[in-house]
Amino acid sequence: MKLHPGNLAQVDQSSPAHVRVELSTREGVKLIRRVDALAALSPRQWQQAGGDLWAGPALATFVQPDQPVIQALAAQAHARASLGTPSPVPDDVADAACAVLRSRGLVADVGTIRWQEPLTVRTAGEVMDARAGSELDVAVLLAGILERLGIRPMLALTSTSVLLGYARNGAVSVGDSPEAFAAGVRQGDIGLIDPSAALRSPAGVLHVPGGAAQQIVEAALSELTLVVSIAAARSSGAVPQPALERDEDGVVVELPPSAVRAEQDAEGPAVTAHADATRSVGGPGTDRAVGAAPARVEEWKRSLLDLSLRNPLIDRTTRSAIELKVPPELVGDFEDIVNKRDNLALRPARGAAQAADDAMELLEAHTVGAVLGSKEYVRRLQSMAASARTTLKDTGANNLYLAIGTLSWYADGRRVRSPLILVPVKLEREGDTFVVLLDEAGVSTPNSSLRARFQADTGIDLTALREPVYDAHGVNVEATLDNLRQQLRTAGRRDRVESTVHLGLFRFSTYRMWRDLEEDWPTITANPLVARLLKDTPGADAEDQAPGAATDLDEVVENLPLVADSAQAQVIADAVSGRSLVVEGPPGTGKSQTVANLIFRSLALGRTVMFVAEKQSALDVVARRLGEETGIGDLLLNLHDNGMRPIDVCEALRGALKLQAPGHDAAALAGLRRQLADSRGELEAYREQLHAPGQEGKSYYAARQELVEAMGADASAAPHAQALFNACAARSGLDGFDADQHEA
Question: Rg of the chain over CA atoms, in angstroms?
Fold first, then answer.
């Protein structure tokens, strides 16, 4: 390919390359040279190769102080640094920048770094979305914040790590050589930041080396392999890389800085310092102060609600959803047709010339075109239907939705397209046609993940989306989208609200759990078990470790419907007594049987049990045992079944409440228990006689084993072994044991 920025931007992974140079003289003579042993890197890859004159300036281009996320973080850092003084010094700014990242829960992935191999350097937006990055990612991110705030940063690489230096005195000239950098650190002209340590503790920022850190600093300075002064690189022409985004066709295009600023100015600030602080803890309609919830709760919330641009609920791409060719003016009618439980047939979309036919076909034949080629039609839809069925079977939650309406806006410096209203549906194949039908177990819902991310980025709660307009068939799409357009115009933004329809897989089920933690975390964490999980080192408390009262395992087993060995019986006894515990074991060791016994025993004690499992197969095994082997199937309510309608739940509860305990003969039952106790007593007596020590400290079992060994190896010892065995047999009474009398 030709050496053109547009072509190179399409490279998505490193690959071998060569350059062919052809020169023509005026006389028509051609000179051709070929340069081999090169590598073509993707725009976000870097490696320490080509000499310091190339590697250093190339690395400096990844420091992008004008990224919207960098601007927001810098504003927050400046505000924090200015709390005690109107003119913060570089040390204060460095401390504040690291503190801002710590408050966002950012972590550094510490691992072996091989600078001579291509390394992917993530953008600030990608790092903050993932709340994680490599040491180099974090160092580049911090360098961008410092450069944005007028502090001169320097990237310093050792053979295995990266440090970030910064000029503590603006008048000091700092060179690019490792020797000059080390001298500047020792003289106190350069401050040091250890990226991974700074995300854990303020001690990761070192203004002046000394004390216990001196030895560590000296060791790092002695191993420097490359120092990059960002200011020096800028003066030599190493400008920040431009922002990149994929267009609707999946082509990577470059956004000039002026275009990005124009879009952001037109649509309103993409990120503000206030909103940036909110994203880590807040959500739609909340005004809770930053840091109100414990750090572990924030970690749980982040794992439940993905607000990154990787989430199709935030940025719906052509890879994550299929566009349905619905005329914009008929999107509301389309939603009504679906919610009236009418089936919609999908077919490959036609050209734009048949728009009138599309409208008639939708309204009369309930058929709509999917923007897919004839070859893709079956493959994509069949794959989507299979994925939806698998997810439903494994998790009990349907993740197949019709996404109605799109909000086109900017996040982290790039345009994203977020779905607005989600309608749960099923996708079934009927011959050569795929049919979309409403999933009656779910309800149409606004995209709450979008609301959370949009509020975090802009400070605006999309109330028009939080409180949609409803009609007889569900959400009134036209009225809701119009209200959203009006709200955005009133807020001075120019985001585009588009009337579109897409079919895709969206992970939405965890939002409700996130919402519970967001709104009710004080109640949840008041539970003693949850409170223990909040500890830095969760484990058993003293009361759990202390031995309880001795448990009669025979009595426990006597009241269980399924067979249980002593280890299983102990688990049930501990759980019923209220102890918290974790039971582990490989497949086939009786875990599901133990769970079934535990549920049965808890029900017998008047308790209500909720059994939760990650996979439906685990639920099915326990439910089958309880239903078929214990006879309490009518007491089970399957909440996992996505086909359970509200009326089915009511009927199941009504049937359970009407159940009556079967009659039984108390005297006969007591007699059976006495008979069981007698049999158990006989077995226990036999065990005692078999293993209790006797003559010369030997038990009957041990004496017999010794006799067998003597008869086979040492005949001279046999008489003594025989006498010892006879004495043990006579003492235990087992000399008169007749096995034939005990045959089953």
Answer: 36
Same domain, 24 and 71: no
Distance (Å, rounded) from C-alpha 205 to C-alpha 185? 13
Strands 496-505 and 15-24: unpaired
492 and 355: one domain? yes
Domain co-membership, 635 together with 683: no
Q: Could you tell me which residues come within 8 angstroms of residue 675 by beta carbon, excluding any fewer than 6 positions away?
A: none
Residue 528 lies in a domain: no
Are both 364 and 317 inside the same structural domain?
yes
Which one-letter amino acid corresponds to residue 321? Answer: A
**What distance in Å separates the CA atoms of residue 659 and residue 634, rounded to the nearest whole number?**
8
Q: Which of residues 658, 684, 701 is at a domain's end?
A: 658
Same domain, 146 and 201: yes
Look up the CATH number of the domain holding residue 206: 3.10.620
Residue 285 in domain: no
Q: Which of 612, 632, 658 is the last residue of a domain?
A: 658
Could you read off the pLDDT of 175-212 as tens digits, one per residue?
678 899 998 988 889 999 999 999 988 888 888 777 66
Using an 8 Å Cβ cutoff, are 502 and 402 in contact?
yes
Domain of 602 in residue numbering reads as 554-658
Q: What's the CA gap between 631 and 286, in Å, rounded?
A: 48
Per DSSP bridges, beta strands 344-348 and 321-325 are unpaired
Tens digit of pLDDT for each residue in 18-69? 788 888 888 888 888 888 767 777 778 888 887 767 888 999 999 999 888 8
Transcribe 24-82 into DSSP letters: E-TTS-EEEEEEEEEEEPPTTEE-S-S-HHHHHHHHHTT--TTSHHHHHHHHHHHHHHT
**Pairing outcome for strands 414-430 and 445-446:** antiparallel
Q: Answer yes or no: do 202 and 235 share one domain.
A: yes
Q: Is pLDDT at 648 greater than 50 in this prediction?
A: yes
352 belongs to a structural domain: yes
Interhelix angle 700-713/666-691, nearest 10 degrees: 40
Q: Are residues 135 and 217 in the same domain?
A: yes
Tokens found for residue 700: 């009957």
For CA atoms 262, 266, 269, 270, give the dihedral sign. Answer: negative
**How far is the CA of 98 from the CAs of 67, 324, 410, 463, in angstroms?**
18, 46, 26, 34
- Cα angle 660, 661, 665 (rounded to 5 degrees) comes to 140
Whether residues 52 and 181 fall in one domain: yes
CB 519 within 8 A of CB 333: no
Tokens standing for 171? 């008048």
| 288 found inside a domain | no
The pLDDT tens digits for 361-403 are: 877 888 998 988 888 899 999 999 999 988 887 777 788 999 9
Q: How many domains does the chain have?
A: 5
Best CA proximity match to 130, nearest among 320, 412, 319, 410: 412
Residue 276 has pLDDT above 90, yes or no: no
pLDDT at 481 over 50: yes
Pairing of strands 107-109, 132-134: parallel
